[in-house]
Amino acid sequence: MANQYKILSVFYFSFLTFVTQPLNNMSVTRFNALSTIDNRPDSYFFESDEVQNETIASYFGENVFGDEAMKKYLPEEAYLSLKAAIQSGEKLSRDLADVIANGLKEWSQSKGCTHFAHWFQPLTGKTAEKHDSFFTMTHDGRVIEEFSGSALVQQEPDGSSFPSGGMRSTFEARGYTVWDPSSPAFIMEVGEGKTLCIPTIFVTYGGEAQDYKLPLLRSQSFLDKAAVQVCQLFDPKVTKVTATLGWEQEYFVVDEALFNARPDLVMTGRTLLGRPASKHQQLEDHYFGSIPERIYAFMRDLETESHKLGIPVRTRHNEVAPSQYEVAPIFEEINVAVDHNQLLMDLMERVARRHKLRVLLHEKPFAGINGSGKHNNWSMGTNTGLNLLSPGKEPSKNLSFLTFFVNTVMAVYKNADILRASIAHAGNDHRLGANEAPPAIISVFIGEAMTKLLGQIANGKKTDDAAVKRAIDLISKLPNLELDNTDRNRTSPFAFTGNKFEIRAVGSSQNCAGPMTVMNTMMGLQLLEFKSDVDKLIAKGTEQEEAILMVLKNYIRKAKPILFEGNNYSDEWKTEAKNRGLNNFTNTPEALDVLSKKQAVDFYGKSWVMNAIELDAFHQVQLHAYVTKLDIEAKTLIELVNSYIMPAVFRYQTELADNIGALKALDLDGEISYQKDLLKRVLKNSAEIKEGIDKINKTLEKAHHCENLREEAELLCNKVKPHMDAVRDAVDDLEGIVDDQYWPLVKYRELLFPR
Ligand code: ADP
Ligand code: MG
Residue 676 sits in which domain range? Predict the structure, then answer.
């Protein structure tokens, strides 16, 4: 009996030591995270056998108040008025709003909704919603379910917690959300709860935009009016032009346990420390490789959720970096595409948690491997079904194509700085201007065929007009392959890809509305100028086609500096771009400066997309976000270094010193050079870390006393960031030598090459 007890207690004791002292001395946080993955049930790694038999078409859009639901739940007159209002953008009457609200309530209740929410896109870049119940009480105490027209049209969320750039304090403290009928209402399912979501814009009491959507909607209608005028030169039947967007969302996926064991990922969305794994993406074996089953299960789940919400996601694949993926939909009208991307980013986070995974939308979660972007494919379509940037097969359409093509190039040439500002934020600074695709210099890539054609036109003499026209006729005969070739140069931030332009510099976490607003606005302004230039020539007696060609020829010559077909990453391009007069803003504060200049005030003012007050507020909000993010990063880094890294380093340092001391005591001085070198390296790095942290602390202190956001941003950008990098270099070097068991942070190889 006693013996048995002894055996048991030994067993018990060793079991305890195993649990409390994992793998000898290994860091508990890291060990726990890694063993959590090992202990996850198979269901997290493999798809269940439940095969989904339903076709996508049978549930696509079932959670959207689309055409079918509208027809079923609205009286015919209301249905037709709503459709007309969506098309024309005209206001709806209060009575009609009541009828539509009732239809929305009936529809959503039939699907189990108990609440409704105004869903909006404040300048935080994320989405926001305030939930209200349909349930209410009458004055005599009866409980009823109600959704009135006024609740549909306008709400007053507590706006004070959203960024306004000081706009509200100068006017009114309150913020209002106002229904945007052009984007369909939808049902958001979170767990068992279902909420009717109404897409809205978010404005101040005075009607000033304090979100991404209102400027976007304004820019759409501005572009529509300008583009229709130009289209009518070619086809009087065109009465509406709609800008289109197809985004390509890149992202990383990591296991939830590993994510939680990295305070930097939790707090900032990126790793502030971490030595690149010896294998990263150099074998190029991840791109388009087979998708791991666990990720595949997540993707399928995400797709099903997306399809129910009418988000037409279609492609999925691995990206270049390990654990990096991409999802892309079929393109849509811009404001719907923007809503869908915002919704998708939301869904990704939620669906990932179900699979015990975390999605990283940050532009640069890991050093040493590719970051994530969000290519924005942009074009314009007419009510007659024409894609204005598609060369097409009919020669008669070529001059129209060329007109829109050349005007886009000209628009980018003139407004490159404003476009650059629209993609500037703390996360994207790690890509733009930081030796990664694409560079911070905005240029346009158009491919060999179009370069040749524009060259012919630009160099054509007056007497060669017939030849130029012949060249234009050739557009329709260009083999598709040649146009497809345009996609080969992946280094350009802005590329023509056969029937659309692809803006590749947009960050993965960004709201597409920012850059898309700029695209629409610059194109609208440019087309108005084009129309006026052509009209002037026609008034002087030039024939229309001739006039168009003359103006285009002039634009091609002027815009030439923005066209670049070479390697955008090369140093030669930096020099060349400078000679061409193109700007290279490598960081956010610098890139945002244009927003306070006359150029931007005119740009947004003339198009009525943002007035001077809105623009200034927008600039302040962007600067504030930058400063806040960097401040959080710096503080997180300091905490990580002080409370995670250095204790482990000191332990190892003591061990090395003890070892050296012990060997010396045995008169083995000749045998300790290895240990001594390591110890020296540990001490050197520790000294560098201390120096860096001291400098960061000092500058943060100074920054907190700055009155001016721009100055604060400058300090963080140029005086804090470089020291954060220096601290990181030293810590990453230590990671390579300190005993692996002590290292407290989950390593890159563990995050990126999960078991
Ligand atoms: P790939 O580039 O892989 O050959 P596509 O050219 O079909 O594929 O499309 C890439 C992206 O461009 C997709 O997101 C797609 O929706 C989008 N896209 C295609 N045509 C247009 C268009 N006319 N306007 C906006 N986006 C478009
Ligand atoms: Mg692409």
Answer: 2-21+627-752
